[in-house]
Write a structure and sequence with these properties.
The protein is of the alpha/beta class and about 240 residues long. It has one domain: Rossmann fold (3-Layer(aba) Sandwich). It has ten helices and six strands, in the order βαβααβααβαββαααα.
């Protein structure tokens, strides 16, 4: 399970500053368990964007945005609405955002940050991965994550070791993540994105926050929820 939280309003509005219209996509997957982020963010996102003068060309939800077969079959029904939009905002984890970006030739922008819960999670068949950095920047990189697709997790372009055929110097069988990002932005006619310098990542965001660690979804194998345990302890003290 990946837990998300909606990005700050000012960050979302800044990302669509040059867009007149937006299509919205939400996920029903992990949201149904953690009850944070995902599909429930779509009404608030629509209200925020319409309040800023943006047109919403349409919206939809997918049961699991990390499953590209589901994503593509679902979005196919909204082809006209997506084509009318300048960009697509996706309210889900970094994996789902990347799956949508790989399925539509549009600028795809994250509506959420993925929050680190610590430990390992289940695996899925798609190549997209999310490092749960807590500060998603997929809107700046064509929907391809530089943290997970670059062996060195560089956020402002490739290192000097990229080969002439676009391979990674760490693993010559692997495409350079920034080569892939460049080609995606070229296809989107969005190479101007590369002029924007991304600040250093806040590595503290990779750690679970205090609120997460003390929340009821932190230890799913606990015999009782944290709140119930606390209530029981208070009763014992009496």
């Amino acid at each position: 399970m990946l837990v998300t939280e909606r990005k700050p309003d000012e960050e979302i509005l800044a990302s669509v500053q040059g867009d007149a219209s937006v299509f919205l996509v939400g996920c029903n997957g992990c949201h149904s368990a953690c009850e944070r982020g995902g599909a429930e963010d779509l009404p608030a996102l629509a209200a925020l964007l319409e309040g800023a003068g943006k047109a919403i060309t349409g919206s939809t939800t997918v049961d699991f945005l990390c499953d590209k077969s589901l994503v593509r079959s679902r979005l196919r029904a909204f082809t006209r609405q997506i084509l009318r939009a300048d960009s697509v905002i996706v309210a889900t984890c970094g994996v789902g955002i990347q799956c949508v970006a790989d399925s539509v030739l549009k600028r795809v922008r994250p509506g959420c940050n993925t929050i680190n819960l610590g430990g390992n999670h289940g695996t899925w068949g798609a190549t997209e991965r999310c490092a749960e950095c807590g500060d998603c920047l997929l809107d700046k990189t064509g929907g391809i994550c530089p943290i997970t697709n670059c062996s060195k997790s560089m956020v402002n372009g490739p290192c000097g070791g990229t080969t002439s055929d676009g391979k990674c110097e760490v693993d010559r069988q692997r495409d350079c993540g920034w080569y892939r990002i460049y080609m995606r932005l070229k296809d989107l006619d969005a190479l101007d994105q590369l002029k924007e310098v991304v600040g250093p990542k806040k590595h503290g965001n990779y750690l679970p926050s205090y609120d997460v660690m003390t929340g009821e979804h932190w230890a799913t194998d606990a015999p009782v929820p944290a709140a119930a345990a606390a209530a029981g302890k208070e009763g014992d003290d009496e």
